[in-house]
Amino acid sequence: MIAQILFIIILAAAVYLFSKNAGRIRRNILLGKDTDRSDHPAMRWKTMAKIALGQTKMVKRPLAAVMHFFIYVGFIIINLEVMEIMIDGIFGSHRIFSKPLGSLYGLLIGGFEFLAILVLIACVVFLARRNILRLKRFRGVEMTEWPRSDANYILIIEILLMTAFLTMNAADHKLQLLNFGHYIKAGSFPVSSFLNSLLPNNANSLAIIERVCWWFHIVGILAFLNYLPYSKHFHILLAFPNTYYSNLHPKGEFTNMASVTNEVKAMLDPSFVPESPAEPARFGAKDVTDLTWKNLMEAYTCTECGRCTSVCPANITGKLLSPRKIMMDTRDRITEVGNNIDQFGKDHQDGKALLDNYISREELWACTTCNACVEACPVNINPLEIITEMRRYIVMEESQAPASLNNMFGNVENNGAPWKYSNADRLNWREGS
Amino acid sequence: MAEMAAAGKEPEILFWVGCAGSFDERAQKITRDICKILQHVGISFAVLGTEESCTGDPAKRAGNEFLFQMQAMTNIQVLDAYNIKKIVTGCPHCFNTIKNEYPGLGGNYEVIHHSQLIQQLIDEGKLKAEGGESFKGKRITYHDPCYLGRGNNIYEAPRKALEVLDAELVEMKRCKSNGLCCGAGGAQMFKEPEKGKKDINIERMNDVLEAKAQVVAAACPFCMTMLSDGVKNENKEQEIQVLDIAEITVRANGL
């Protein structure tokens, strides 16, 4: 009875805390500007099914794809087991599904165990890639102490959870064989039974081990749930909405700024009256709140895998730009803005901005807009859009483009070409051979 | 175009030459070759000549949306005044901008890149690879321009133009959707690169050399400049030619 009450209190606290933190992230995302992504729902569901559920963009790197798939499927399927654990915890039952499901239950548990061991193997491989092989993709200027620890914490927690799950099963199975107490026979436990020889033979000790592992496993999962909002691991949730709200246009197409269209139309035709005369706060983006909610959702979705940076031509050739850093900076800054609101109220200005305090101009001007980062992202994040918005701010609000680009602008404006050639010479190509 | 309109005629297709195609000496040759192809198959076409102006692409990628939209709307007025319906461009940047970004500003045209035109002509049997220079057995690789490939998912059309050559086609390590940029996009063409270990076109040369290609096929005047400079930098001008898809087609057909 005490155990049940304790369980319910822990569960309620975990759910409450998680909803509160997830709600804060939702609020932060909605600090972004509006953008309409409600069109083509069928296409959007399809994109989500293919890219988030089906993970089709992961396969470009086969080893990582297979390992990630183990963890992904393991996570989803083992949740069925977590459901049973929740019910048992609340009602004080033990393996409540075992009787109604009969022999199917044994099969399910066997399946969970196989997945658990695959998850374990994948996590160990991932840890080795990060810490022993030290793959370049997981390094880089933006991969400071915290992002690297974050990745390791996630993997270690998953290893601990799976170990507890298997040890719990092994102890349970051994108790079943001893016909001890309420431990009814529930299948063959194909993986965990290998642990049997490591466990004591004393029934009371086994029962203690089983309970400790049970509690560790479920409290661990609830704690992990509450770790998500602070971690890159939040991608397991946001990958789904983020792909649903994907940009469905060709990657080469950049947005046309409606606020500019109105001004240009008015310049070309003085009698033009714009449909919505509301002036935008500013052209382009200086800070995170100038970006769209989709840009901000992407920042929270990023799991810092670095595929973007590893294919970025600027980064490959040693420039400062790293698309992953663009996303991480955006997340750090919107988190900071959100914390400021919580602490000092809605209108607080901290005198900082995404531009210069986080992302330097040198990074922004190194981009070739080649879309390699956008193509590489397994969950359709678009760092290029943020880079473009920030360039727009620098050019249109500050007029601080590099001098050579200002020359180019001048040429386009005066003679209709980015170079200093007279428009009258446009047909000179006919004269060569 | 003005002359054609004055004579009361409408072309089948408007050839959008682009700034590089108009002014860059190397790209001018490609422009002439695209014209040769059009003339060879008997498509009536026109160019805007002095009425053509920058699409606004470099301004837009560099963040100058005002300048882009000024250019776009002026160009749309010109195109609409001539009742243009179909456009072929010699540059993936012009192609992408007119095709994807002009419709939102009121300019709706059927836009194709010259590699798509060549593909169509090959498919229709109007273009072969006969009567000209033989590429038989030559190692040819194709460099995907970002705004044709990733930008608009056009990977097959330019390859089609090479497949008819009976040459030895090789892909570079980074190709198609994984293709490495030449370094010129995003208005980089008009500025010095930021400081780093090396230039992007030099990085791309690793892939070219690894593929042991004798010909690097390009489909973009900016890639052409960057790749040619890269080859020059490696002192391989004798061994490696950089040619546009249109030039290869013209040579293969002896036009």
Any descriptors?
heterodimer, A: 433 residues, mainly alpha, Fumarate Reductase Iron-sulfur Protein, Chain B, domain 2, 2 domains, 0% strand, B: 255 residues, alpha/beta, Rossmann fold, 4-stranded parallel β-sheet, 11 helices, 8 strands, globular
Structure characterization notes:
The complex is a heterodimer of chains A (433) and B (255). Chain A has 433 residues and is mainly alpha-helical. Chain A folds into two domains: 2-30 and 61-244; 280-403, Fumarate Reductase Iron-sulfur Protein, Chain B, domain 2 (Orthogonal Bundle). Chain A has helices at 2-29, 41-53, 62-91, 98-101, 103-131, 145-177, 203-227, 235-244, 258-268, 293-301, 307-311, 313-316, 323-344, 354-357, 361-365, 372-376, 383-397, 403-415. The radius of gyration of chain A is 27 Å and the shape is elongated. The model of chain B has no long low-confidence stretch (mean pLDDT 95). In chain B, helix 6 links the parallel strand 3 (86-89) and strand 4. The two termini of chain B are 24 Å apart. In chain B, helix 9 (200-210) packs across helix 10. In chain B, the strands form two sheets. Chain B has a four-stranded parallel β-sheet with strand order 2-1-3-4. Chain B is globular, with a radius of gyration of 18 Å. Chain B has 255 residues and is α/β, with parallel strands linked by helices. Chain B has helices at 2-6, 18-23, 25-40, 57-61, 65-81, 92-101, 114-123, 156-163, 200-210, 221-233, 245-253; strands at residues 13-16, 45-46, 86-89, 110-113, 139-142, 168-170, 215-218, 241-244. Chain B folds into two domains: 2-119, 3-Layer(aba) Sandwich (Rossmann fold); 128-253, Rossmann fold, CATH 3.40.50. Chains A and B meet through helix 9, helix 12, helix 16, helix 17 and helix 18 of A and helix 2, helix 3, helix 4, helix 5 and helix 6 of B.
